[in-house]
Amino acid sequence: MPRRRILLPLLASAALSAAGGVFGAAWYVTTRVSPQHRRSYQDTYTFTPWELGVPFEAIRLRSADGLALTGWWLPRPESHAVVIGSHGHSGSKDDMLGIGTSAWRAGFNVLLFDYRGRGDSDPWPHTLVSREVDDLLAAVAHARARVAGARVGVVGFSMGAAVAIMAAAREPAISALVADSAFTAVADVVAHGVRRTLGIPPAPLVRAADEVLARRHGYRFTRARPIDAVGAISPRPIMIAHGAADSTVPVEQARRLFAAAGQPKQLWIAEGAEHCGGYFADREGYCTRVNAFFAQYLA
């Protein structure tokens, strides 16, 4: 048999194997970007503001596409300032109890809520920034309806920080923003994860995963780019916080976000801190800094 007739089937087989490998890896990436959490009775085993001696009211919000979102309202009737907590990708509202109850003790109304598919909110495949922006805007609308003349601040972590940047660019009612461990773009953080865990060039896999995600869930994560939105927040203030030792979102992404933001802006790099680790490195100092920022700009 001529060599060409032997070589072509081998090349075709190798190409199919490579394509299958890329598709399988892309499918895995989409399950990380948009996981579907299977709920159990243990999901209700969480702390609430009650354990911390803070009064609260359980509330329900309605996102623009009709999903019910659950939350807690920590009241300060004497104040017109509201701080909203924006939790991370796989988190829920109870993750925000530390900074949330601290803000309440500092004199702010506080709203903590679960993004779609998390906590007690309606089930939905998690997205990474793309659909959650509407959920945060629903929380802002609730705060403004509840408090006449509300001055709204948002503190977000990781995905919640990226969501807050994109929401603030769209909604001028967000008066001040603390973005902790935000990323420049979803594609950037996915690419970093591919390089770190698989040790391969990320571009082909990112493109393939984006296509698979569009077919599975109807959205493209490559369109979620906080770096393109952060400049629109000015002249409202933003504090960008990040851990210097962040292995999930490299600190360089925080520096790029800060460079793209307008004034007034602050950059706070927590030395030695991992992803979202600034709070845990110095809880009291962290809360003091964030509450002072909101006291200055939500007065």
Q: What is shown here, in short?
A:
The chain is of the alpha/beta class and 299 residues long. The chain has helices spanning 3-33, 97-105, 132-146, 159-170, 186-198, 203-217, 226-229, 251-260, 278-281, 283-297; strands at 57-62, 68-74, 81-86, 109-113, 151-157, 174-180, 238-243, 265-270.
Tell me about this structure.
The longest helix is centred in the N-terminal third of the chain and has 31 residues, at 3-33. This protein has one domain (47-185, 224-297): Alpha/Beta hydrolase fold, catalytic domain (Rossmann fold, 3-Layer(aba) Sandwich). Mean pLDDT is 87; it is low at 1-21. Helix 1 packs across helix 6 (203-217), helix 2 (97-105) packs across helix 10 (283-297) and helix 3 (132-146) packs across helix 4 (159-170). It has 299 residues and is of the alpha/beta class. Strands 1-2-4-3-5-6-7-8 form an eight-stranded mixed beta sheet, with helices on both faces. Helix content is 43%, strand content 17%. The protein is globular and about 55 Å long.
